[in-house]
Design a protein that fits this description.
With 434 residues, the protein is mainly alpha-helical. The chain has two domains: 2-215, Clc chloride channel; 230-433, Clc chloride channel, CATH 1.10.3080.10. The chain has 19 helices and no strands. The protein has helices spanning 2-56, 61-78, 88-96, 100-103, 109-125, 132-144, 154-174, 177-188, 198-215, 230-259, 264-272, 274-291, 301-309, 318-332, 339-356, 364-380, 383-394, 400-417, 422-433. The longest helix is centred in the N-terminal third of the chain and has 55 residues, at 2-56. 56% of the residues are buried.
């Protein structure tokens, strides 16, 4: 009789373990996919509402953005502490944390809700932010809900759940499954081993299937047929990689300095008067928006697509203005990511390079793609993630080797300007606060 009871308990424990694992690796990614699709669709909607408002009233950003930035910082500090910025540093900090209680300040249901609300609000008012970084923190928060249940006990299991959540978030945000896996390997697991096993791959696949079922098998920037003739290709790769790396490294260096104690005046103003500081940043973004007829407001998706697909040209200072608008938005303390705005800055840099290079030296679209990849790699110092994201977003496999070379060169150049990757410097700050 005792043996039967023992066998029953063992069998029941096994069933519970299977249930918890199945819930985590299927239901978790399913939910991440649904939330990512909602965030993608909602981001487009609120962005269009904001564009309509700004088109009708050209100078309204001068009022909306300062007030909006101050309000979003107040909401974040008052109700949703931990949602500030991209969200990727918080996910990395949670992975590196040893104390379970400290993780709850970085990933939770409260933060999950706050990140969605604040990101969409920021996009509506025209902040130069993206939704991709927030999707990483949202994905990690969803997977963290499964921690402590069944077999998911201990730091190693928690790290695996969070890494998978972050990978699924990137995969769903861009519809780039390979980039999701590479992001987990290259960014989320620099201090730990990411085991890309069947469970992790299943999670990314499920997330991708949800995105495909609801939005179709789309590519983020359409389909590009750009290619590069190797007669002028090596020089083009070198120029785009070096310039993109310098610009991206400069952005990271400035962001780290402005959000830390490197610049004492700025640090004191952020600490003592956070709402005034945020409003000042919002006013700066508004001025840039007015000067560029609204092109630098929001994610920058539309100008990037126009430059990449249609060869359209904007003002020569579009890249610089988007650089500054993204920097001000990130420094202000509001929630929002860097990926989409960084790609827009890179496209602006590429458009300038295409205008400076001799006519016919290299295809316009190829220069844009190389510069987008190089700038993103310079900002993140994650070269593999950068070129895979760009390749998958445009379905342009002809540019794979040039994108790889430009991305690696840009990362190497950026490391000469700042030794530690941006997200990890910011993650260490979140760990210190815990």
């Amino acid at each position: 009789m005792k043996d039967n009871v023992l066998d029953y308990r063992v069998w029941l424990k096994h069933v519970r373990s299977v249930w918890y694992r199945g819930s985590a690796w299927i239901l978790g990614p399913l939910f991440i996919g649904l939330v990512a699709v909602f965030l993608a669709v909602a981001s487009v909607k609120v962005g269009k509402w904001g564009e309509y408002l700004f088109e009708r009233f050209r100078f309204v950003p001068l009022l909306v953005l300062p007030v909006g930035f101050s309000g979003l910082v107040w909401l974040g500090n008052r109700f949703f502490m931990g949602t500030q910025g991209s969200g990727i540093p918080q996910a990395i900090a949670a992975i590196d944390q040893q104390d379970d209680r400290a993780v709850r300040h970085l990933l939770s249901f409260r933060i999950f809700i706050g990140k969605i609300v604040l990101t969409l609000s920021g996009l509506f008012i025209g902040a130069s932010i993206g939704r991709e970084g927030p999707t990483v923190q949202i994905g990690a928060s969803i997977m963290h809900m499964f921690y402590g249940r069944g077999p998911f006990q201990g730091a190693e299991q928690r790290r695996m759940l969070l890494m998978v959540g972050g990978a699924a978030g990137i995969a769903a945000a861009f519809n780039t499954p390979l980039a999701g896996i590479m992001f987990a390997i290259e960014e989320l697991s620099r201090k730990h081993v990411f085991n890309a096993n069947n469970s992790a791959l299943l999670a990314v696949i499920v997330t991708g299937l949800i995105s495909m079922a609801l939005l179709g098998n789309y590519t983020y920037f359409g389909v590009s047929s750009a290619s590069l003739d190797w007669n002028g290709g090596l020089a083009t790769i070198a120029i785009c990689g070096a310039v993109g790396g310098i610009c991206g490294g400069m952005f990271s260096r400035l962001l780290i300095a402005l959000t830390g104690d490197g610049w004492k005046h700025t640090h004191r103003l952020r600490a003592d008067h956070p709402f005034l500081f945020a409003g000042s940043c919002g006013f700066g973004v508004a001025v840039l928006g007015v000067l560029t007829h609204g092109h630098v407001l929001g994610t920058g998706y539309a100008p990037t697509l126009a430059m990449l697909q249609n060869g359209m040209s904007f003002s020569w200072y579009f890249g610089l203005a988007k650089f500054l608008a993204t920097l001000l938005s990130s420094v202000s303390g509001i929630a929002g990511g860097l990926f989409a705005p960084s790609l827009a800055v890179g496209a602006g840099v590429g458009a300038n390079l295409a205008a400076l290079l001799p006519f016919g030296y290299a295809p316009h679209a190829a220069i844009i793609l190389l510069s987008m990849t190089a700038y993103l790699s310079g900002v993140t110092q994650a070269p593999a993630t950068s070129f895979i994201i760009t390749m998958e977003m445009t379905d342009d496999h002809h540019m794979l080797l040039p994108l790889m070379a430009a991305s690696l060169l840009a990362s190497a150049v950026a490391k000469r300007m700042i030794s530690a990757p941006l997200y990890h410097v910011l993650a260490d700050r979140w760990i210190e606060r815990a």
